[in-house]
Amino acid sequence: MGRIQRKGKAGAAKAYVTRSSAVKKLQVSLADFRRLCILKGIFPREPRNKKKANKGSSVPTSFYYTKDIAFLAHEPVLKKLREHKAFAKKLSRALGRGEWTDAKHLEENKPVYRLDHIIKERYPTFVDALRDIDDALCMIFLFASLPSGDRIPPSLTENCSRLAAEWQLYVMHSKCLRKSFLSIKGVYYQAEVMDQTVTWLVPYQFTQNMPSDVDVRVMLTFLELYQTMLGFVFFKLYTDVGLVYPPPLDLKKDEGGAGVGAYSLQDAAKQPVASTKPKTKEVEVNGHKVSSKDVRQAIKSVASAADADVDMSSAEPLAPTADDDDEEFVPHPSTKDASTAAALPTLKSISALPPSISTTLFAPYTFYLSRETSRPIFEFLIRSFGGRVGWPATSGSGSPVEEDDDSITHVIIDRPLVKKANETQEDRERRARRKYVQPQWVVDCINAGRILLEDSYAQGAVLPPHLSPFGEYYEGAYDPTLPIGTQQAQQAKKLYEKVKHSQRKREAEKTKLEQRKRDLVKQKKQQGKTKGATS
């Protein structure tokens, strides 16, 4: 007979622990406990029997695995949080007493924790981090567009803007953008990085207001983790393509509103490498200075002289052994067809294949953005597919193309068509050489993988439906890309088939009802005949 188990010492009561018990065990505040759980990826669990897990109590509460809480107890960040709590007490005491020197010394030596070890724990491989980059990019681009204030420091907004620009620079350099969609929430992008699909959302550049009912502390904790993770990921991505990370920033261009153009990509191979040669050390021997280089040369000369003393002429060549005869190479003819073997792809043939046409979709064209279009969005889209783009000075500095450049093939414009009364002959000729299209044309061309006709997207024209490239369309569903006449014909055909089907169904039910009536009449006649025969 086994030992009797005490209540609450085994089963669900031992496997789970409530949030209040976890906070009491770790001796931290509720805010610090939430921060630790977010950083370590620990979340509440749902036991099968809450009453057993709560040791007989039915009070609603959150449960965590006991092993997860024990895992948190050995976290280095927890030690730093406790040190920061003691630091805050010492600083407030020094400020209250007017000890400004001690307060300054405490502020200079305040405890700071790092999240590098947490990133390595949560993402053991680079692919794991790349799969989880979607939420990080969405959060980075969101905080880059928010105004700084009391709840969001300016340094945080600046760092998010820098990370967002670094990601856009990599996507434009590697030509890995695949899809885009202009939605109400913002602009959706999808890229393919190292065979991993990355989708993120970028809000429109309007004046954003932080709602008062949003808990920014939770979002800032996630952002703190995402910033560290993106630093690791971007360093790996830039290093693999041979670029310097972080890309240097030109402060003059940044002050002029150059945006992504303020950063410059530099080849890592062209950067000067620090010399790794050991320094020669000089010592004085018998009044003469002798360096370590002289010592190494003397050692080499002594070793070469010792090798020369060996009489190599007396050495006889080694005779081949029996094992060497047995291991003689015997050619075997291949059983495979030579033509089939020659058709197999090799690494050289794969590397020699031309790149996909979609990555250089806009390479033959030069675009000019009108002042009412969003420059950051369409500059990123056009440059990601190999196109050249320019913009007016009101949209920022650093435009590589001027408005009167003869190489401009397309003008992205989003205003109604108005004829100018004082238009010169040169302006008319320039307008005739260029294609004036609305911004949706750029996104639809990217999603279609080819250059669409500009007539449907001309200035002032009614645009076709902007379809999401992320949706799945099945046969028989509504297709806005078809002409109106074809849609009406398909709808009329479906309606006709539906009416015909309902008519056939009603006729079948009517025939079935009549047959049942005839069967009942026949059955009653048979019953009457049997009664007359028995009587």
UniProtKB/TrEMBL annotation:
The biased composition feature labelled Basic and acidic residues covers 494-522
Identify the main location.
nucleus
Gene Ontology cellular component list = nucleoplasm; PeBoW complex; preribosome, large subunit precursor
Q: Superkingdom of this entry's organism?
A: Eukaryota
rRNA processing found in the keyword field: yes
The residues covered by the BRCT domain are 357-459
Q: How does it assemble?
A: Component of the NOP7 complex, composed of ERB1, NOP7 and YTM1. Within the NOP7 complex ERB1 appears to interact directly with NOP7 and YTM1. The NOP7 complex also associates with the 66S pre-ribosome.
Q: Which family does it belong to?
A: Belongs to the pescadillo family.
What is the protein named? Pescadillo homolog
Q: Which organism is it from?
A: Schizophyllum amplum
**Species classification:** Eukaryota, Fungi, Dikarya, Basidiomycota, Agaricomycotina
The gene from which this protein is expressed is NOP7
